[in-house]
Amino acid sequence: MAKINLLPPDLGPNASVLKLLNLAKKAAVVIGLAFFIFGALFIGCIVFLRVQIQASAKRAEGLKSSITALKGTEQTLYLLKERTGKIKELLAKEIQEQPLTGSSSILLNYPGVTLTQVTASLGKINISAGSQKTGDLNSFFENILSDNNYKSIKLVSFSYNPKTGYLFSLELNLK
Amino acid sequence: MINIPFSLKIVVKPLLVLALLITVSLVGFSRGLYQIGSLRQESVAANKSQNILKSKLDMLISNEINVAADANYAVSFLPGENPALLVLYQLRSSAASSGLLLSNFKVGSEMKNAGGFMTVSISFNVEGSLSQILDFVNSIKAISPNVWIAKTELDFTGETLQAVIDTKSYWSPFPTKIPALTEPVTSLSSAEKEIIFNVSSLSQPSFVSLTPGAPRENLNPFGE
Q1: How many A/B residue pairs have CB atoms within 8 Å?
Q2: Do A74 and B60 lie within an 8 Å CB cutoff?
Q3: Would you identify the CATH topology of the domain A99-174?
Q4: Which of A2, A121, B95, B205 could disulfide-link to B100, CB 3.0 to 4.6 Å?
Q5: Percent of chain B scored above 90 by pLDDT?
Q6: Pick from B21, B56, B137: which is nearest to A98 by CB?
Q7: How do the domains of chain B map onto residue ranges?
């Protein structure tokens, strides 16, 4: 059947306007569809994430209550770690080796040499002693000089008296 | 009245609807993306927190048996209070095992050191042979609580060898706060385990604790 248009042709919209309207219509359909598809996807995603967060929070609550039941162990472990840290600090600060222990061979083996006083403090030993014979004195000094424990050996005083023999005092600085 | 052309009249309305649709879609899209982004961050944080709690729980369960004994050794070596009495007890015991008798004990006042340490000085006299005294001096490093010899004076002029020994011992107050429940706790490192092993091999102070007896009936309250 033939199309009958009784309106004058100049009253109707021109072709470019009709084309634009057609394009707008298609765009509206595409945008509307995209809106609904993405909207559904977004809502699904949000619901999924919310469920996941809630489940995670529930599990965390369960773990928290289990940890609270082990609070005593946690406190003890924390104290243990704190103490070991402090002990490490203390051991680094203090020298464990006693000066006298390292010098026991000199103090115990001194034939002919009489010790009068020995003072051992941090890294240092002061020895006051006497001897009647030069030979004993020599071997005592040789014994000390051959010992590798000392950084420096200082002869603080040395005197001779015919009655008492040789009197001397040494300052040994430990390595 | 303004005369609007027919072509413009029929174009404006659909274009306005289209613009509105585009605007609504863009706003909705950006809002949705923002919401998903923040939920994702929340989910990651929740998972992270859950993992921290899980590893903390596993670690606490695995350490539950040994931790109390290990802490006792560590606290015994570095106590939270002035250890002067424990040190005196330990020094006496150590001297007795070397066949020596300690006398003239002097306990100094507490002093605060760097690093949060407190120190107390303890000096005493000891008589005996040189080898006995050297043995005793050597044995001091094997006792708990910690004792450090500051100075030793040996006097050979008398009939017996006299020694004056100045020692010091450290302690450090216990921590008053523990970290939050959600804070991670690391397991003991090999260095820390080695320290615990070393202090556990030291001689520990042992006390006899007397438990109070149960009340008993006095059958003759007027008798002796």
Answers
A1: 209
A2: yes
A3: Gyrase A; domain 2 (3.30.1360)
A4: B95
A5: 55
A6: B137
A7: 8-64, 69-177+188-200
